[in-house]
Each structure stands twice: as C-alpha cells, then as structure tokens.
Amino acid sequence: MAMNGWTWFLGAHVALACIGVVGVLRGRKEPMAMLAWVMGLSAIPLLGFCFYAVFGADRVVRRVHRKRRRIVHRIQRFSRRAELQADAAGKLLHAGLSDNLAGVEQIGRRLVGMPATNDNQVEVYNDANAIYSAMEESIRGAKKHVHLEYYIWQDDATGRHFRDLLIEKAREGVECRLLLDAVGCFRLSKRFTKRMVDAGVEVAFFMPLYPLRRRWAPHLRNHRKVVVVDGCTGFLGSQNVGDEYRGRLKRLSPWHDSQMRVRGSAALFLQQIFAEDWLFATRNALHDDRFFPAPVGQGTSIVQILPTGPDQGIDALEHLLFAALEAAQETIHIATPYFVPSHAIRMALIHARFRGVKVKLVLPTRTDAKIALWAGRSYYAELLEGGVEVYELDRGMLHSKIATVDNRWGMLGSANMDMRSFRLNFEITALIYDEGVAAALVKDIEEHCANGRRVDHKSVLHPPIRKQLIEGAARLCAPLI
What we know:
The chain is α/β, with parallel strands linked by helices. It has three domains: 55 residues; 214 residues, 2-Layer Sandwich (Endonuclease, Chain A); 165 residues, Endonuclease, Chain A (2-Layer Sandwich), CATH 3.30.870.10. The protein is built from 17 helices and 17 strands. The chain has a 15-stranded mixed sheet with strand order 4-3-2-5-6-8-1-9-16-15-14-10-11-12-17, with helices on both faces. Strands 7-13 form a two-stranded parallel sheet. The two termini are 41 Å apart.
C-alpha cells in the first residue's frame, strides 16, 4: 500500500510538473525566469506546481488584459477628455526639450499613452513630516473631492490621523475615495475602515485575496501612492501612510522617502490613473465633468506621468529606464531601496560609463527585504568593474525611488529597480523635465552618498565564502523577486 501510495504521489508530481513546464515554455518569459520555474516545478513535488499556478502562470496576466478590454470603452471617455484638456493650450510640446529629452518623452508617450505637459508647478519633499504636512494642507483645502490610492496604510497614529481627516472632509460634503492594495493592507482591520465608510468615505481594495474570485492574483499588486485633490493638485512618490515612514521604528530609523506635489495639467493624468484603478476595483466609473476640471496653469515645469503595470503588453518601465540611461551624456544619479536589475539595465549603466558618463548608485545597508539586498550585492562586482560608483547608506532606511540624468531632468515615483516593479507591480512614475527640480534630486542623492560609504573592489571581489553563497542563492531567485 505504501509503495502504491508513493507511486501515485510521484505520478501526480510528474504529471503536474509536465503541465507546469508546458505553461512555462508557452509563456516565453526571460530565460533565467523560465529556468527557475522549471527547476522549482521539477525539484519540489506538488508544491512547486501549486506555487506556479498562483504566482507564475500567464493566465493571471491574461485575466488582467481581458478585464481591461471590457472596461476600455468606459475609460476612453474620461481619458480622452484629460488628454484634450492638456492639449488645449498647446501643452504637448517638444519645443522646450532638447533632442534626447524629446526622444524620451516620445517613448514614454508611445508606451503608456500619456504626453508631457508644460504648465506644472512641482515641489519635491524628502522629509516625512513635510510630506504629510503638505498632504494634509491640500486635503483640508479640498472643496469637491479627494482621491487616495496606497499600497500600505497602517493602523497607527499616522494612519488614524489621515483616516480621521478623511472622515472630517466627508462630513463636510467632500467626496472622499480611498483605494488600498489588498496585500499591502492585509493587516488593516474592518473596524478601521468601517469608521470611514460610516462617515461617507468610499473605501475599496485592489484585487482582494479571494481564491474563488476570477481576478485573484496575489502576486500582481498595486504599488502606487497617489493623492488627487479636486482634480488640480496631485501627489505621488514612494511614501506610504504609517508611523514607520516618519522614522518611528528604531530598527529602520531614520526613514528616507521622496514625494512630489504637482499642480497643473499633470494632475489630470493622476486623476485619470486613479479613476481607471477605481473602475477596475469597483466597476464604478468616475467620468463626470466635475472630476476633470479645465486645467489651470500653475507653473512652467514639464511633467510626464507614466503608469506602468502587468496590464500592459510590454515592460514599459524597463524600456523607459533603458531609454533614459541611453540618453545620458554627462551624469546619472540613482537612489533605490531594492536593486535587482535586468541584464539590459546593467548593460545600459555600464555602457553609459564607457561613454564617459559618470554614474552613481546609492542603496541602503539596512532594509526590510534582505533577499533583495543580497541579490543586489551580487551585481556589485560587475558594476564596479564597469566603472559605476556604488554607495551604501548605513544610516536609516533609504526608501526613495529617484533618478536623474545630466542634472537636467529626473524620475520620481513608486517603482523600485527590480523585476517586481518592472513586470508585476502597478507603479506610477513622473518624468520631470526641469533643471531646478533635477538639481534638488541630485543634491538629495549626493547627500546620501556623502553620508554613506563607497563600496570598493576589494570588498566585493574577495568576500567570505558564506557571503558568496548567500548572495549567489539570492541572485538565483532574482527572476522571482
């Protein structure tokens, strides 16, 4: 009987592994990712197939595509209005951009369908208290509606403060909507959200974790952090809502984040992104005119809003970053908490250095995702050999996701420089074609480099055997991180 039981077990494992391998081969992912899945399916009986069925099968991505096709006719109404309003005063431009920047803008527009606009006022914040104060000021000044979209919202002093602020605004008659990611906020209690719902705040969760639902996809997460007030003021960046982002957790304190406030036409595109995500999560369309007011120019900064995610047919974020690195002529500065780059991005960084571009990369030493830290370190030797300057910030948690090119323009948003942000997460990034803003971002990165330590060849070329094994194992998992 025992022998028959083992025979059935092994037979089931082989059959399911073969089914999974067929799915991997049909999916045509990156070769290393395919190899990792094949190894997992073959080496881990039954559990490997279950893991692949939940996290790796293409059927999840195709469901996102089908859902998007079903709602696209509803989205077109407000998305086209936003674009037309942004175009109205000649806001689509190339006249103010050099040839290489115009090329990047064109690539971004073709990838995600959103153009740059040149009537924006941009303020960049890298202090948590300043970020929250600016958000609170804008929310308190709301007259019509407030829309918020977050990956993590904690039930702590900070989370409760902003919850109560939304309750206050809802009772004043302001329409308040809050979209939270189901995985990022899985610890948030119903009691916490019920107080908002009872006060009139609409609360929804992005792709809830109900296995029997057709849209169940626990590995495709909404990593965006967006706030839109009255359709004319918007916030985006890397900071979630919680005490830890103020540096109140000693283990990862101080916490470094970057956020931006934008006033002008770019806020309409943030509104469009929220409306699209809200429609996806709730099937309720926000297409009334009151959500898309005529844009009023607030400044002269050129801003391009770029939503990326697994509902797109191409890895738009990776293509865009590659284009930005290739456009560099003098300097590249990058700060990111999680660095697990694709082969193309590593080549672009090294190629830029060979062209004479000075490249600086700063990462944290302390992190809440050790496997990503170890995997990132496994690439240091290759980058250092290519001439890239690598720094690690020992003091606090570096959570900013920013990059600048030639001290003239920059990228800021929610996306990390890893495979998850490139291919699995719904992310939001702003391209800011403004030398003043770029200078502020460069200053921030340079301060992190000055406060950190430069990684030298000696420490990465001859590490202890234990470190080699840990980093090698983490790198093997890189396609799945």
